[in-house]
Amino acid sequence: MNQSPVETALSRAMIRWSLTKATPAAETARSWIFRVEQNGRNFAALKILKPVVAEEEGRGARLLQWYEGEGAATVFDIHGDTIFMEWLDGGTLGEPARNGRDEEATSAFASVVANLHRPRPDVPEGLMPLRQRFSALFEADARTWPHTARDLYARATGIALKLFDKPMAEVPLHGDLHHDNILSSDRGWLAIDPKGLIGDPHYELANAFRNPAGAIKLAADPRRISAMADAFAARLGLDRKRIIGFAAAHSGLSACWDLAAGNAITVDLAVLPHLLSAYDQA
């Protein structure tokens, strides 16, 4: 019987890395994930990328490999569209944030970013420039936004343009860091699923302000926005106003992505006005 492409990729990976007992763990729009055993003792993960996202996911995988396990899941090897990596089955950082321990989660988030942004030699090739990532914001038709929210789009776009007009030193960026992309492990909190960008380090914190998922009331709390900006600026030595500016710009960008996909923009309509207000006051 002929094997499917994913079965063929799995068989080859099992042989290449001497693995046993592959168990399907998840299938997403971007990949198939299997839990495998090494030497009958240790668990690991195989992530087989789907062709439609292989370029973007491959870029992220190379960045994950470059982190060498500091603040992120360890990638043992990459072959073609198959990634052999550390198995993580702990809870996400979203759990403490959603359960009354948001300050603790913010501190952990900052520590993960500090680890990811440690200076390392030989920056991976092919990372996406951050400004290119913002193309959906700059090229959007404001008329796709609800009439009463078009001023939010205009302000987010204006802030983004101002930020890019005053560039900072560029660093490799995870590019999609949020609470539920950070998992618990016996090595501490570790990031997964980077996008593989390069640009202003302040952007790395942007998605934290509209997360964790399912906690709109928390994310839209002006006191939380202010406290989070304070904590990030103090821990990472970054500019507080620039942190909030990128958070607002990213909220506008995320809304543009959702509108293009036909999704509701409930989170960003709730959070973005408060981010804009915090930016004005910073």
Your description of this structure?
It comes from Devosia honganensis. Pfam families: APH_6_hur. This is Aminoglycoside phosphotransferase family protein. Helix 4 runs parallel beside helix 9 and helix 10 packs antiparallel against helix 11. The strands form three sheets. A five-stranded antiparallel beta sheet has the order 1-2-3-5-4, with helices on both faces. Strands 6-10-7 form a three-stranded mixed beta sheet. The chain has a two-stranded antiparallel ribbon with strand order 8-9. It folds into two domains: 82 residues, Phosphorylase Kinase, domain 1 (2-Layer Sandwich); 188 residues, Aminoglycoside 3'-phosphotransferase, Chain: A, domain 2. The radius of gyration is 20 Å and the shape is globular. The protein contains eleven helices and ten strands. The protein is an alpha+beta fold and 282 residues long.
First-to-last CA distance:
64 Å
DSSP strand count: 10
Annotated CATH architecture of the largest domain: Alpha-Beta Complex
Helix/strand-derived class? Answer: alpha+beta
**Shape estimate:** globular
**Average pLDDT number:** 94
Query: Nearest-angstrom radius of gyration?
Result: 20 Å
CATH superfamily of the largest domain: Aminoglycoside phosphotransferase (APH), C-terminal lobe
CATH class of the largest domain: Alpha Beta
Taken together, the total number of domains comes to 2
- What is the strand content? 15-25%
The residue fraction in helices comes out at 40-55%
Question: What is the CATH third-level topology name of the largest domain?
Answer: Aminoglycoside 3'-phosphotransferase, Chain: A, domain 2
Q: What's the tally of helices? A: 11
User: Strand order, biggest sheet?
Assistant: 1-2-3-5-4
